[in-house]
């Protein structure tokens, strides 16, 4: 049996080469993504950074801890409390202590001679500044950094690379990485919580990668930020714990590796790997799905082509079981060879994949492939299993071939769909449609989750692909009706050939269906959700002007807030970003983003989608929630933990629609957990001059010298709208590129195989008087027509998926249109058409080099 299988693979290598390449590529992609996925299971053990040289560190616990029936649940606090002054004094009696203070510092470089240099606008400084604690995308000319007292620099330890330590107010030491322009002697404009000032760089230290820092003199740092954020204690850890325990709870004593908890973003490495893990897992799943579909379709078409061969074998005495085992054995041979090749491709490509993830910003800079080998084994046996399983279904059809039935059968496909395929297609379609309808009825928000809109369309795609042999016939006749009426025989022959060879047409259309449906569904869903969120932002913002800090993650100075409130004709709604946490069903801590607002001004500058209650009823004893909360009855009380960890009981004043998830929670400034103002929405009073109000706000902003921006409501809504991020776009293209590559190979292989087996038909056309260019044009038109059929079916599947997304948004109260990625989908269809035409024309051109009489006399 093995020798027979090897002989069959060798003699029909054209049929199997596409399956081999597609399967090898699929195994390689699964192996590469598996190796990268294995590398995300644990972040590297970097050890402490910010306090690596400190023996003991005392700081407030940054975790909310709530005891439940299932144990203690934790969630990060939005704001960590300072170390109490009394505790600082007690710990100082144990030994030498160093006080650390962390505060925002925004730099705008002015050079040695006071000329503006706008260091923040130089792209070479982006890498250093983007690591600043609490920093986000920078405004032109502003570089967000974190300030510290110089005495705590030794805890890292930082060492001077140039200059000296700060000895007087206005002097600073800065971290200077490879891309930084700051050097000793520079004067920089700095904005701190205490106001704007000019600093002179008197020294530099090497950038250690975890933050971009500015070190000031201890006294100046204490003046800017009086609170002690962490305390380095040079004393016995046990004694320190005793003192902290006597002082009460809420403080952590960190030693050894535990000092990492005091680093900026101690969990960011692990959090960065979560998104990479999800991306790679999805990519591997879609690759496996496409590989199975491609291999199953290829083997099904190969069996259909070999009907006469199997009929001859049955006439010669072969049993149905022998025919089945021949098909499965051939698939196993191809699977082993392709999987071994894919093993090597995956091992070689995994480092390239990791580097691409880092370059695209999808993974942290340290991300690299580890020493694990188990993904290679899984990929290999998956490939063998996929090949065998893909051929198994086709083998049953081959085994049912009667000894004389196929020898009498015409070239026209008479029975294209067995009952088992009808049943399987119906089950898959009903499952996909049922899941979508269930989500829309029970929880529309579930239909908008990433896992849902990526995985659920696959069921509909599989179901429709299974029905392709039934769908392609009517579509071919419908789409070629007009071309068939044109002068010449090309349109008519293309229609009849595609209609007669339904199995061939379905095998060619299936990869196009998968490609178009995946592309339009994934990109369209993400773009539709982004547009829906942007619509929510625009609808909820009624302010004429919006004032925001110069850099994301910063707050507005209290003095500036008071100046804005004093502007004549301005109705200023000051708000703060915070968070609240609620215990649901007694076991789960759920964190919600919140905004602390002035209830008296909220309705003047915003229009949140209220479904129950009144926003004007919001006060210090109440809260506004959304429909996602378990408790949504106006007037009932709910226990929540504020951003600083305080537990309070608040009455529900109003309930907002869930929307896309951006309608958060509202509280008052008293319940903001100590958060500073980060946005001021301004409505211009009816009798006031809008231009004068805007000018007064901009004058106040310029007086601060901190880069504060005054935007119109439309400008702020456009900037705040959460469009598709670069990382999301790169992740989707990573997933789609894998699918497109597999389906492109399957499309080319099917057409090459089908065209090679049609040499006698092409020869007959030549003998009837058709020229070589006319035959090649016919082959190309037929290939493009079949691609068009696949594109129409794929577009129909995508339309159903996007309609489900639109329906979910409508049920959630979001009135937004569907965004169709016409350009990308059109490019994918055009590429498929080019691949199909080339894959059909090239083998036909080679075959037509032989004399038509000799081709017509060839036996199969």
Layout of strands and helices, then pairs:
Layout lengths: L1 H10 L1 H27 L16 E5 L2 E6 L2 E6 L8 H8 L3 E5 L2 E9 L14 H4 L13 E7 L10 E4 L7 E6 L10 E6 L2 E12 L6 E4 L1 H7 L5 E5 L2 H11 L3 E4 L13 H38 L1 H9 L4 H40 L14 H26 L5 H4 L10 H24 L7 H17 L1 H12 L1 H5 L4 H11 L1 H39 L4 E4 L9 H8 L4 E15 L3 E10 L1 H7 L4 E4 L8 E5 L10 E5 L5 E10 L8 E4 L8 E8 L5 H15 L4 E4 H8 L5 H31 L2 H9 L4 H40 L10 H26 L4 H5 L4
Helix pairs in contact: 1-2, 1-9, 2-7, 2-9, 2-10, 2-22, 7-10, 7-13, 7-17, 7-22, 9-10, 12-13, 12-24, 13-17, 13-24, 14-16, 14-17, 14-24, 16-24, 17-22, 17-24, 17-25, 22-25, 24-25
What keywords describe this structure?
860 residues, alpha+beta, ten-stranded mixed beta sheet, six-stranded mixed β-barrel, 26 helices, 23 strands, elongated
Q: Overview of this structure, please?
A:
A hairpin with a 5-residue loop joins strand 19 and strand 20 (647-656). The strands form 4 sheets. Strands 14, 15, 16, 17, 18, 19, 20, 21, 22 and 23 form a 10-stranded mixed beta sheet that branches. A 6-stranded mixed beta barrel has the order 5-6-11-8-10-9. A 4-stranded antiparallel beta sheet has the order 4-12-1-13, covered by helices on one side. It is built from 26 helices and 23 strands. The protein is α+β, with helices and mostly antiparallel strands and 860 residues long.
Q: What's the shape?
A: elongated
What is the straight-line distance between the termini? 22 Å
For the biggest sheet, the summary is: 10 strands, mixed
Mean pLDDT: 80
> Which class of secondary structure composition applies to the elements?
alpha+beta
Helix segment tally: 26
Low-confidence stretches: 111-140, 408-412
DSSP, total strands = 23
**What fraction, in percent, of the residue positions are helical?**
40-55%
Rg estimate, integer Å: 34 Å
Strand content: 15-25%
